[in-house]
Amino acid sequence: MSVFERIFHAVLFEALAIAFSVLGLMLFTDHPVSSLSGTMIAVATVAMLWNMVFNAIFDRFFPGQRETRGVAVRVLQVAAFEGGLLLITVPLMAWLLSVSLLEAFMMDIGVTLFIAVYAFVYNFCYDHIRAAIIRKRQDHGLQAHS
Known about the structure:
Distance between the termini: 28 Å
Number of strands: 0
Radius of gyration: 18 Å
Helix content: over 70%
Strand content: under 5%
Largest sheet: none
Shape: elongated
């Protein structure tokens, strides 16, 4: 993937993640929407940067066609990514929401569990849609030269 595509992939992922996470936290906490939105934007910004760095490294350890990755590799990818992210985001959430590290951890775990499933589905869909677009472009390119 090009740098531009990595940025597109990460921004789309995070925009959808912010919306879904704020909605979920609104249901389970007493924090105002404005605090939750600001916090999730900060967390998403950290996550987006971590996403680009982590996945560039991950792709070096697991080269080849991304759409052929099996469930075990995808589960490993999500678990390693989310574990590293928790180390950064728990203190950030505690500070931004003025809550204890334990409360921030509990909220972050809830978000993380949701994001883990969301990341699996998002990346699976993204990779397959990307592969289909590339195949379609290649097919059109071959037909144009025929």
